[in-house]
Amino acid sequence: MKRWLRSILCLGLVALFPWAVLAEGTSGGDADGSAHVEAVAIERLATCSGPDTRYRETGIYEVKDEKVRLISRAYDEDDICWVQCEVLVGTNLRRVYTGIKRFDATTFDLDSVPEEASLDDRAKVSVTSKALYGPGDGYGAYAELTVDEGQNVTIVAIENGYAQVEWKTSRQSYRAWVPLSALQY
After folding, report:
1. 3 state DSSP class of 185
2. What confidence tens digit (pLDDT) does each residue in 72-125 have?
């Protein structure tokens, strides 16, 4: 489905507002000077490790009426729009996926949220590594989840010396971040 049509469908799910009332997203900057988009959550966020309900559930976050950083957008097999967003849990950040419908469409511009494009590179894990919620030490690790030596994974993204990898079992799909040094590709 064409990118513009998916954007329209996503926005149609988000609100019953005409296009004219969509406001420019709140943007700020990161330490590296890149811009980011923030949106106001209209309900708590039920989340998964990837952009579909077939991925591992990662929790429910009570962030209603709070600004949440949106990292990227992706579409599942049914062309439903998901966003990778960042939430703070204690002192650690977590990057998780949730449906775009959980955000107030008047607080951001969906087109300013980058669409994911998977690198789709295959790799083998060379060293068992903690499965992290994001690309760096500031992100928490999944409880009781590792990316094991010898495991075959697909690299979805690379950032800050870390790779977002994906793998499937007979029961579930997973996404997590690991150091690039833990992979052979």
Report:
1. coil
2. 999 999 999 999 999 999 999 999 999 999 999 999 999 999 999 888 899 999
